[in-house]
Write a structure and sequence with these properties.
Elements lengths: L2 H21 L10 E7 L6 E7 L1 E3 L2 E5 L7 H9 L1 E6 L2 E12 H4 L5 H9 L4 E7 L4
Antiparallel strand pairs: 1-2, 1-5, 3-4, 4-7, 5-6, 6-7
Length: 134
């Protein structure tokens, strides 16, 4: 494993055990940038809440995947094909997770978010569609 890979895994572990529990206190609130994604464990059946950055788009939400596609929450959502997400104080049922690249996500994102994701080298995203007609 490369030094960058080890650093990314270290940051991911820190976030999972330290930062994420603190972020959940604010995630999903009306004036906070982070959303909260609620999903069910694919093996345990346990309910989980994970803070994520999510941008609402016309037909759903797009979530950047700075740690890649192997994160537990994504594997849970892909396995179940649904979740709920609270963004800016509103909760939505979402379904049909689709992995998309930066080229596909970019035109759907606000210019500000697109620049931030580009700056941090995020090149993979998941798009979740609204589960019901809005």
């Amino acid at each position: 494993m490369s030094v960058n890979g080890m650093m990314r895994d270290g940051v991911r572990t820190f976030n999972k055990h330290v930062l994420n529990p603190a972020m959940l206190l604010l995630a999903g609130r009306k004036h906070w940038y982070a959303a909260v994604l609620r999903h069910t464990g694919r093996r345990s059946g346990k309910a989980y809440a994970t803070p994520v950055v999510a941008e609402r788009v016309a037909d759903g939400v797009i979530v950047p995947l700075p740690y890649g596609t192997g994160v537990d929450w994504l594997r849970n959502v892909v396995a179940s094909q649904h979740a709920t997400i609270t963004v800016r104080g509103r909760t939505y049922a979402v379904t049909d997770p689709q992995l998309i690249d930066a080229e596909t996500a970019g035109p759907q994102l606000s210019p500000r978010r697109r620049r931030v994701f580009e700056r941090f080298g995020v090149d993979c995203f998941v798009k979740l569609r609204w589960a019901e007609q809005r």
